[in-house]
Amino acid sequence: MSRDAATPVTLRTLRRMAAAGEPFACLTCYDATTARWLARGGVHVLLVGDTAAEVVLGFDRTIDMPLEVLIALTAGVKRGAPSCVVMGDMPFMSYQADEAEGVRNAGRFLTQGLADVVKIEADASMAGLVERMTRAGIPVCAHVGSRPQRAALTSGYVSAGRTPQDAARVEEDARALEEAGAAMLLVEAVPPEVASRVVAGAKVPVIGIGAGPSCHGQVLVLQDLVGMSESPPAFAEPVARLGPEYERAASRWVEQVAQRRVGGVRFTMRGGGVESRPSGEG
């Protein structure tokens, strides 16, 4: 269900929606301008993901995402969309090596990054970290199933929960992390029936990505949704083709510049005073 963009969404809102069976929408976002447009479109949750390493910084792997940069991006998204729940994605090695360091870094996402919740990729062995973060007053979204930050161990991104043993492990991870205090769960790239069992056993909102339709919320990487990714995952159905639109706009600009057809009556600075930018360029 869509929402009034002026009405604030909170974690309590998401819990109410999950309890009522109302799906909520989540997208990745990395800047204030895009955040404003997504909020106007009614998106409930904006995930400032470590996918920024790939789609913003040009790396080949999400594990190359710098902590300081991601905190800054998270703050920008919250400033652009203060009515959305903004989730800061803790990057690789910002929480794995030491629990105390993980809690401090998570706190920075709230204080400096203005995040409403932090996301960590976790399994049952990390329940202690989730408990410490929760005790410190930090809402945690525990990411189970396929965990991209472990891609080096699996020689690439792989699905999860495909065997009975692996499915049971995903479900146990979700239970243990919720019991440790996780405010939300995110389950990635598991069979729909596995996600359904996670949802059935959870008392907190569950977000899915590539996990079937049963989750309370659904998330996609924005660039996959709007047709700007070169190789989107199979589960990401684009609803627009903005990549070719960017290309056409750039080509048209190049042509206008080459022909010295820049501006016009509405878009020309005239003498006698300072004029505001007509459409926010710059």
As a percent range, the share of strand residues is: 5-15%
End-to-end distance: 35 Å
Query: In this structure, how is the largest beta sheet organized?
Result: 8 strands, parallel, barrel
CATH architecture: Alpha-Beta Barrel
Query: What would CATH call the homologous superfamily?
Result: Phosphoenolpyruvate-binding domains
Assign a percent range to the helix content: 25-40%
Describe what you observe in this structure.
This protein is of the alpha/beta class and 282 residues long. It has a single domain (11-241), classed as Phosphoenolpyruvate-binding domains (TIM Barrel, Alpha-Beta Barrel), CATH 3.20.20. Helix content is 39%, strand content 13%. It starts with 10 loop residues before the first helix and ends in a 24-residue tail after the last helix. The relative contact order is 0.11. The mean pLDDT is 94.
Features:
282 residues, alpha/beta, TIM Barrel, eight-stranded parallel β-barrel
Give a brief outline of the structure.
With 282 residues, this protein is of the alpha/beta class. The chain has helices at residues 11-20, 32-40, 52-55, 67-80, 99-111, 127-135, 151-154, 164-179, 192-201, 222-225, 242-258; strands at 24-28, 45-48, 85-89, 117-121, 140-145, 184-188, 206-209, 217-220.
Secondary structure: elements and pairs:
Layout: H1 11-20, E1 24-28, H2 32-40, E2 45-48, H3 52-55, H4 67-80, E3 85-89, H5 99-111, E4 117-121, H6 127-135, E5 140-145, H7 151-154, H8 164-179, E6 184-188, H9 192-201, E7 206-209, E8 217-220, H10 222-225, H11 242-258
Parallel strand pairs: 1-2, 1-8, 2-3, 3-4, 4-5, 5-6, 6-7, 7-8
Helix pairs in contact: 2-4, 5-6, 8-9
